[in-house]
Model the fold of this input.
Amino acid sequence: MILLLLVLSFLFMEFIAWSNHKYVMHGFLWSLHKDHHVATIAGKPGFQKNDLFFLIYAVPAIILIISGISFANSYLIAIGAGITLYGITYFLIHDVVIHHRLPLFKNPGNFYISAIIRAHEAHHKPRNVTDFKNYGLLIFPVRFFK
Ligand SMILES: [Zn+2]
Ligand SMILES: [Zn+2]
Done:
């Protein structure tokens, strides 16, 4: 049950990230997301205004984990941990592997990760109108597997 809750909250975060990216970051908070798009895939060096979104996502996760510990409620901890794991995954794939913001590791040549990279690059360098609509990170149209 705890593990299921953790996995579900992780998956739910992909939906939150997708909808937030589509309707908020490319909507009324474009001013905060814009600098991530300016220098295309290389990205703006150093801190980006876009990084503030990590803080915004961290707040509910921290609140859930602290309340879970305070009230001895493992469900709250599991949900908070799911959000946190998604944040770490997003950072490692999006910021390290795709945008090379930290010189840690590059594309491991994995079939799925290579497809994630192509799908996200399409969002940054759209070859057609549908490419730019690709707002998710881990879930994307199957054509990027080719
Ligand atoms: Zn974007
Ligand atoms: Zn990006």
In short: The radius of gyration is 16 Å.
